[in-house]
Amino acid sequence: MSNTNVCIRIDDVGNYDDLKCNFLIDTFIKYNIPVSCQVVPKWIDERFENKLAKEWLNKDTSIEWCQHGWEHYNHSENINRKFEFGDTRSKKNQQSDIVKGKNKLLEIFGDKFTFAFCPPHNRLNQTTIELLQELDYKYILGDTRTLQDYVLNDSIRFYEFIISKSLNLNGVRKIFTNKKLLQILEKYISKTDFVGICIHSYEFASLEECLVFVQALKLLQSQLKFSFKTISELC
Ligand SMILES: [Zn+2]
User: Fold this and answer.
1) Alpha-carbon span 53 to 64, nearest angstrom
2) What is the whole-number distance in angstroms between the Cα of residue 1 and the centre of ligand 1?
3) Is 0.85 surpassed by the pTM of this model?
4) 10, 66 in Cβ contact below 8 A?
5) 187 alpha carbon to ligand 1 midpoint, in Å?
6) Residue 2 predicted with pLDDT over 90
7) How far is the CA of 168 from the centre of ligand 1 (A)?
8) Is 5-234 a domain of CATH 3.20.20.370?
9) What is the mean pLDDT of residues 153-169?
10) DSSP string across 74-124
11) I want to staple 84 with a disulfide (CB 3.0 to 4.6 A). Which of 23, 120, 150, 190 is the partner?
12) Where are the domains of the chain?
């Protein structure tokens, strides 16, 4: 039995037409694997809201709904350092977007909303952190690029998602195969008690590949006996 907790993070959730993304959520539910969905508030239209109400929010699932910025717009002038929240933006502008997003998600998800903020492109700045603390967020989700030298107080916890299904190498996106990703996961499981994995629907070629990925994760869990958890279940 491994003591490691594995958290799967699906980014860029909220687009009704993103069939692979929505299929991934359904498949994680079907295989009873808790998953943390990073929702882009502005993307949610009436169709997605209806789908949520009919298919996901009325069931007792281990899906966690968190905030992925506001509209996933790039406000950076550097194409290799994209961000929605960062140094080109005033505190007032950042606050306006964070609050719009939070209010929309609270309206839709109610008490099923987890006070976790995942900045698009995994970047933010000290101002973003101060705002998230003032607005009572409990968690920031990111990767190795997120915190840099920024300072957090005790009211908010940072979770680093060390594994990604794809990496941007000098402008070229390299997508790991399911097999490679699981090999990387297996290595981390023996070394650490928390492993975060970040996935996006565009990293999967087909619905079939989404399904194979979830099945392979389930199989690996049965072999290595780690636990799948959402962020709110960890605390
Ligand atoms: Zn994103």
Assistant:
1) 15
2) 33
3) yes
4) no
5) 26
6) no
7) 13
8) yes
9) 93
10) ---S-TTS--SSSTTS-HHHHHHHHHHHHHHHHHHHGGGEEEEE--GGG--
11) 120
12) 5-234
